[in-house]
Each structure stands twice: as structure tokens, then as C-alpha cells.
Design goal:
Arc Repressor Mutant, subunit A; about 160 residues; globular; two-stranded antiparallel ribbon; homodimer; alpha+beta; DNA-binding; 6 helices; 5 strands
DNA sequence: TTCGTAAGTTGGAAATTCAAACCCTCCCGT
DNA sequence: ACGGGAGGGTTTGAATTTCCAACTTACGAA
């Protein structure tokens, strides 16, 4: 069956959000990346209801973003850890955190700081792999690859 | 009233997701950043139901992420555009798109390419503002600023 | 034996989502 | 004047999800 006229734009952002865009999923990933991968920790730290958490964890494991690891037999107890693919979502968390730090809080009451191995406090900058320059909206041009899906020129503020 | 024992971890990621983490919100931002800011374009390109879209748009405007702009009086017609704060969420979209491109598609069937002003195809890299090095999980140490909220050491794959 | 911990599952009420239809204002062609 | 059609929503009612509390299972400790 072909694309119906009501299909949305084909897009990797949409596909990614279909996996990790549900409520709590990225908070779960945050905790797991912080090393807090046990069920009860995830409940406490994310605020997710236990049943929703169980559903999210199944989905993230199925998607290959998290892996379940046994940390105790008798009684059997598991903990969740990020896979390679999960760790590669960390840049999304870092840029989101930075945005929240800058726009949703005044000044210095940041709930968490990150130290980089270079010795300084970590602040993320998104750069171009080719030239190393910081990504700016005006420097980017979208080129849709699917016939029928266009964009409407640049958007100035 | 103090923090009840069931409050989740204070976190800018959580705060950011409370604003833009609902279904369709980031897709709306994507379209608006592409210059497709009209209601019917947003319906078609994101797939959001019209009522949900109206709710999301109100929220994003209230949050100062989008602004409503009149592009025609008589009949009055509006279009939505990103504010400065909205544009600053673009790095989140860029890193999410890159993750989706790399993990959710095989090979070269990418639905959209970005050209950078340097002349090359744009691929995002998240780097440290201080040293310029690429952000890697092992190079980052989380330092929670709120008493009672800890992390459990590094997480290796 | 009873308590406590960890990792879920279950049941039912409450909140959201969805699709389709509807509304209102205007512009246009005849 | 009349009948579309476009654009930007709102309304309605059914289908899904979410939420919360309680329950379960499997152990280890006192």
C-alpha cells in the first residue's frame, strides 16, 4: 500500500521519538546513564508509575537501547544498562539539559553540573563534523529526499 | 511545603520535557524551524490531530518557544515561528535526527539531508565548550547539586 | 514466623488521544 | 446573490493511556 495523503513527513526525528519520545523514556535513559539502573531507583528518580515504567523498559530493551543485566541470582534481580545505541542518545540528553538549564532556571540554581575530563565544567556545543563550526540555524539548509515533501525557505527570527 | 519523598529527581531534562516532551511538540518545532508554520501544514506534516495541535501550539506559545505572527489581515491568518528560545532547541532536533539516521535506517535512505554553510553535508558533533573535544560518556562526571540526590558511579557498556 | 526488599503485575478510575464533523470568516467566480 | 473553497480552528464521543494503590512472588534476616 502506498503513502496515503495523510501520512506525515518521513523523518528520522519522528522515528526516534516514536521509540524514546513517550513520557518517562528519556528520564529512564538519563538515570540508566547515571548508573541508577534498578527498578525501584527508576521509580523514585523518574517519578514514573511502576506499571508504566515496566512497559517503557520492555520497549527500550526491545529497541536495543537498554539491556537487562542480572546482578543477583537468588533472588533474581536485574538492573538496566544502556547499550551502545543507548549511550549514543546521550548527546540528546546533554543538549536538552543545557537548554533547560539556560531557559527554565534563573541563574545558578542548576540541579546538576557535569565535569568534563578536560577539567572544566561541561557545556555542550553542537558543531559541524566537516568544518568544526558551531551549528547555527542560518547556516543550515534542509534538503528533503522524498518527492512531495518540501520546506518553505529560511525562517528568520 | 517541602519535597515529598515521592518527588522525582530535580532535573532540567525533566523540566524541558515537561514543556516540549508531549507527543508532536518536537515535530511541530521541526516544521516551524523548516518554515512550515501554518496550521494546515502542521497538521499534514506532523500527523497531529487538529485539536491536539491547537493545544500544543497554545502551550508552545505560552512557553515562549513559538510566536504567532499575522501573515494576512482580512481574512486574519496566522503562522507560527520559532522564537530565539525555540531556535535554541534546534541542537536537540539535530542530535535526535542524527541518532535516528544512524540507528533506525539502513544505509543511505535518509529522508532529509542538511547542507552546512561550509559546503559539506551537516553531521552534528557534540563537543565541550571549554576544550573543544567531543563529548564521550566516560569523559563526563555528574555532580548533583541537590542534597539527597546521588549517582552510582560510571556505567561501562 | 514475621519483617523487609526488590521487581514487577493487576484492577479500576481519571485523563488524553483520536477521527470526523462542524463552525466562522473571508475571497472568488458566475 | 449564490455557491464553493481555503484557512484556522472547536466540538463530540469513542478508544487509549495514564495513574495509583494494592497485590504477588521470591528471597534473606531477626
Amino acid at each position: 500500500m502506498a503513502a496515503s495523503p495523510k501520512d506525515p513527513r518521513p523523518c528520522s526525528i519522528a522515528d526516534a521519538l516514536a521509540l524514546v519520545g513517550e513520557k518517562y523514556s528519556l528520564l529512564v535513559l538519563r538515570e540508566v546513564c547515571l548508573g541508577n539502573g534498578r527498578f525501584d531507583q527508576l521509580v523514585r528518580n523518574t517519578g514514573a508509575p511502576r506499571d508504566v515504567l515496566a512497559t517503557r523498559l520492555r520497549r527500550l530493551v526491545d529497541a536495543g537501547i537498554l539491556a537487562k543485566r542480572l546482578y543477583s541470582e537468588r533472588p533474581q534481580r536485574f538492573e538496566y544498562r544502556p547499550t551502545r545505541a543507548g549511550l549514543e542518545l546521550e548527546p540528546v540528553l546533554l543538549t536538552l539539559k543545557d537548554w533547560g538549564d539556560r531557559h527554565l532556571r534563573q541563574d545558578g540554581d542548576l540541579p546538576m553540573l557535569l565535569d568534563h575530563s578536560c577539567g572544566e565544567t561541561f557545556v555542550p556545543v553542537v558543531t559541524c563534523r566537516a568544518c568544526g563550526g558551531e551549528a547555527r540555524h542560518e547556516g543550515l539548509t534542509a534538503r528533503p529526499q522524498t518527492p512531495g515533501w518540501t520546506v518553505s525557505g529560511p525562517t528568520a527570527a
